[in-house]
């Protein structure tokens, strides 16, 4: 049995966002009554990607990337790692002292309430 020769990097994992030059033909094929399978085969992109583009295009009328929904997080990944490291060093610190330490060490300015909320989200309770 012979396997189809494909570049394994194209089929595994998340890749970069699809360019506008590929999104346009997807919508063109859809408007030309081509099936998702046909469009996928013609453009050499996954069927799920074709379906996602069409699904997004129908209600919005555009294929442009939309901004993420929801409020931005207070802490970045770096800040969360610093917070974990601080708590692991000394389990008896209060949220107020942790907030002051983060301000002193890495310039992260946040309230003790935010520190408590972030710790709770990371699985630290008490």
TrEMBL record:
<dbReference type="InterPro" id="IPR009057">
    <property type="entry name" value="Homeodomain-like_sf"/>
</dbReference>
<feature type="compositionally biased region" description="Basic and acidic residues">
    <location>
        <begin position="11"/>
        <end position="23"/>
    </location>
</feature>
<feature type="compositionally biased region" description="Basic residues">
    <location>
        <begin position="71"/>
        <end position="81"/>
    </location>
</feature>
<feature type="region of interest" description="Disordered">
    <location>
        <begin position="59"/>
        <end position="81"/>
    </location>
</feature>
<protein>
    <recommendedName>
        <fullName>Sleeping Beauty transposase HTH domain-containing protein</fullName>
    </recommendedName>
</protein>
<feature type="region of interest" description="Disordered">
    <location>
        <begin position="1"/>
        <end position="32"/>
    </location>
</feature>
<feature type="domain" description="Sleeping Beauty transposase HTH">
    <location>
        <begin position="12"/>
        <end position="63"/>
    </location>
</feature>
<dbReference type="InterPro" id="IPR057667">
    <property type="entry name" value="HTH_SB"/>
</dbReference>
<dbReference type="InterPro" id="IPR036388">
    <property type="entry name" value="WH-like_DNA-bd_sf"/>
</dbReference>
<dbReference type="Pfam" id="PF25787">
    <property type="entry name" value="HTH_SB"/>
</dbReference>
């Amino acid at each position: 049995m012979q396997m189809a020769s494909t570049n394994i990097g194209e089929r595994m994992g998340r890749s970069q966002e699809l360019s506008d030059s590929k999104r346009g033909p997807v919508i063109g094929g859809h408007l030309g009554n081509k099936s998702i399978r046909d469009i996928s085969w013609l453009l050499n992109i996954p069927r799920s990607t074709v379906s996602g583009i069409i699904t997004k295009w129908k209600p919005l009328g555009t294929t442009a990337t939309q901004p993420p929904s929801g409020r931005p997080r207070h802490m970045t990944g770096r800040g969360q790692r610093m917070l974990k490291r601080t708590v692991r060093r000394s389990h008896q610190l209060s949220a107020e002292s942790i907030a002051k330490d983060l301000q002193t060490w890495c310039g992260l300015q946040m309230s003790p309430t935010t520190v408590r909320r972030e710790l709770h989200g990371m699985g630290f309770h008490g």
